[in-house]
Every structure is written in C-alpha cells, then in structure tokens.
C-alpha cells in the first residue's frame, strides 16, 4: 500500500455539503490515520451523492488520480464508498488500492462481508419503513403530505436506535468473552451461543455477526 493518498469524502445531501456537517468528522478521521502512518494526502475530493447510486463522477476522478499517481484511495468509513456489494466489487476490479480508516486492515474478503451487511441493513430498513407506511395508511393516516419525509426519517431513526441499543447490550458480553481469552470471531460466536445469547433477530451467531456488532458499537461510541 502506498503512503501517498487521495482522500475521498462523501455526504448524502447538498445541505450537508454546504454546512460541512459530516465532512469535518470524515476529514478528522482521515487526518489522524495519515498522521499515524506518516503518509501524505496529495488531493482531497468531495462528492455530494446518495450511497445507493452507482454513478459517482467525483469517485471516478479520484480513482483515475490514484492510477496516475500510484496513490491509495482513502475514505473515513467503508460506507462512504458504497453500500452495495456490486459497487465494491467493481471498485476492487479497477486494481486501485483503497483503505477505509474504520477497517484499515480489512482484506478484500472482509470488505465484501462488511459491504454485504451494510447492504442488508439498508434493505431491512427500507422494507420496515415501507411496512410502517402501509400500516399507517391502513389506520387512515394520510400519506403524501408535506411532512411525510420527516415521518420517514423519524421511522428510520427509530429502527437504527433500536439496533444501536441492542449492540450496546451485547458489546459488554463480547468484551467479557474476549477478556476470558477467547479472541477469534468464531470462538466468540460459539461462546455467545453456549451462553444462550440470541441475535437481534433470533438467528444463529456467526463470525461476521460478531464483527458487525463490534463495528456498529465502536462507530456509535467513537
């Protein structure tokens, strides 16, 4: 990996781009990483886009610059690149090295797994939001009113808050298991199962599930 970086920042709305909300946090995270590894950022590029879209002209510009300068593409979090596995796959196929500060040692397989979880989470939130809107309509609540975007945002925030709360409850148990000397993700998954701890949806514990819990918890707590 080159110690010469092109940093890529992305925010989802034009309002965030103008206000700098979200950009400062990404920039600070990148600056800390670059300073720690003794690297250099040769250019910073910012895109105002939706994470679900695949047409990212500024990202394409960043990739092209990395190729020309033999630089590494640097982002604060993996979801700043995309939340779909197919997009990450196309990025890997370009041959450009890239690093997400929140998972700097992740290999290509890990990146695919993390992206798959992010895509799955987004689909779940979208599905639950649609179901909530259908239920609201069935109760006679008028949809399509000027405040529906606000209501949708509130529904999404509620779902995310619930997921964050679950992570906050499970993370101390995982920490306790690690303190006992079990450090592999598979070992932690087995220990959680042996203790009768259920996943948020009542499913089986897997290494990737443990990793996702820890990532979400550390992202929420900083």
From TrEMBL:
The keyword Translocase belongs to this UniProt entry's keyword annotation: no
Catalytic residues (positions): 12 (o-(5'-phospho-dna)-serine intermediate)
Transmembrane spans: none
Keyword DNA-binding appears in the UniProt entry: yes
One Pfam family linked to the record: Recombinase
Source organism superkingdom: Bacteria
Entry's Gene Ontology molecular function annotations: DNA binding; DNA strand exchange activity
Domain Resolvase/invertase-type recombinase catalytic: 4-140
One Gene Ontology biological process: DNA integration
Protein name from the UniProt record: Resolvase
Annotated organism of origin: Sphingobium indicum F2
């Amino acid at each position: 990996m080159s110690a010469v970086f092109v940093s890529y920042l992305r925010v989802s709305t034009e309002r965030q781009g103008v206000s700098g909300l979200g950009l400062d946090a990404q920039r600070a995270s990148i600056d800390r990483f670059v300073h720690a590894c003794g690297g250099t950022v040769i250019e910073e590029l910012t895109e105002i886009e939706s994470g679900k879209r695949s047409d990212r002209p500024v990202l394409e510009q960043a990739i092209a610059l990395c190729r020309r300068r033999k630089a590494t593409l640097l982002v604060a979090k993996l979801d700043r690149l995309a939340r779909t596995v197919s997009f990450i796959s196309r990025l890997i196929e370009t041959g450009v090295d890239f690093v997400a500060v929140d998972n700097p040692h992740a290999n290509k397989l890990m990146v695919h797994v993390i992206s798959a979880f992010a895509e799955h989470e987004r689909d779940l939130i979208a599905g639950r939001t649609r179901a909530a809107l259908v239920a609201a309509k069935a109760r006679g609540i008028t949809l399509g009113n000027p405040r529906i975007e606000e209501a949708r945002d509130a529904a999404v925030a509620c779902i995310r808050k619930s997921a964050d709360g679950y992570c906050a409850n499970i993370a101390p148990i995982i920490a306790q298991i690690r303190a006992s000397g079990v450090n592999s993700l598979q070992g932690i998954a087995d220990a959680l199962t042996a203790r009768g701890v259920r996943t948020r949806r009542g499913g089986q514990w897997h290494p990737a599930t443990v990793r996702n819990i820890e990532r979400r918890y550390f992202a929420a707590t900083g």
